[in-house]
Specification:
elongated, 12-stranded antiparallel beta sheet
Amino acid sequence: MKKSILLAFLCVSSLFISCSNDDENGNGADNFTIPLTDGNYWTYDVDSEGTFTRDSLYIFGDVVLNAKTYKKFQTRDDVATGFYSSSLRNNGVRKSDSKLLLSGDLSLASGQNLPINFDLSLDDFVIFNSNASNNQALNSNAVTGTIQETFNGFPLTINYSLQSYGGESFTTFTSPNGDVYNNVKATKIKLNVSVTTEQTVGGFTFPITVLAPQDLIISTLYTAEGIGVVYTNTDTSYSINSTVADEFGIPATGAQNQKEYLDIYIVD
């Protein structure tokens, strides 16, 4: 088992605080086009704090889920290291008015080998809305769940909540690698997690907060009209009580960042 549930969480590649020196501006959201055509192809250079990998994402064809038709996304050799490509891999996406809806199982990046299993089964989860205002929740209800896990003899109750939000709009957006794109809309994705346990002393059971509710993952995806996602930035972090950390034998704080840059793409 990993050194800790929380450190395993930290390895998750996913969701984003972003910054840019471009000015916010309206971008004609009503006419925003997203290419969802069979054979469309995107490659991403993934930078996980100095460890570099490459993801290849493409649209395989149609898939029917819950009586609705989606475009199925796959990755080359069924492998992905970045949060964005991992999230879409083997899942279906469909367009409805100004929204992109995702259905399937939200996958964590390959190689994480998490000791727990997040039940992030999604059904028409809104991952993009060109008409959304900044910080507007894109789903009427967040995806929530509870996981029961045992670590070092301690029973853990892990509660999580997944939600997406509208982000800034840019007439011109400059990616941190210097690439420039027109008509770009950002989306934020947040995974909020809390962890509790209990301990029995002298016949009395006491609740213990391991991880107070906090945004474990914050990810921002930048989508360019007519292209798709061109840049993704994902921050993963946690902070717990130092006494509890000592009890579990783990660091009281941790942080990780991952960036995904669009390289080669073919869209129709």
